[in-house]
Amino acid sequence: MEMKTMVDEEINMHEEMRRAFALLSGKWKLEIMWLLNQRVYRFGELRKAIPGITQHMLTVQLRELEADGLLSRTIFAEVPPRVEYEITQKARGLGPTMEALTAWWREYGKSVPIKPSARGRKSKIA
């Protein structure tokens, strides 16, 4: 049996992190995950909670997060049908990352210039 060197068995962390970043890439995914980390949401509630997102883009982002196992979608057999979204146990593992980002923002957020959103649905909040 041939002996493998440590180099052969090493994980390429750059490639692995690229895969991790890809799971959460997209303009809205982190915001969706942050909201779902707090509670279960219905589609309409998410759309209202995220100024600027279109119905189509919210649907696309939710489908991708579900396909990646980061959120679950529950359909209730009612008329009209009710659909709820919640993060999965796998996504709950990102909780410390979300908490670290929140702490970082509390410390440095005021130093970040506010950029107007030029795309998507306009916020109704004045």
Automatic annotation (TrEMBL):
InterPro entries named among the record's database cross-references: HTH_HxlR (IPR002577), WH-like_DNA-bd_sf (IPR036388), WH_DNA-bd_sf (IPR036390)
Record PROSITE patterns: HTH_HXLR (PS51118)
A GO molecular-function descriptor: DNA binding
Name of the protein described by the UniProt record: MarR family transcriptional regulator
Pfam families given in the database record: HxlR
Highest taxon listed in the record's lineage: Bacteria
HTH hxlR-type domain segment(s): 15-113
Keyword terms, alphabetized: DNA-binding, Transcription, Transcription regulation
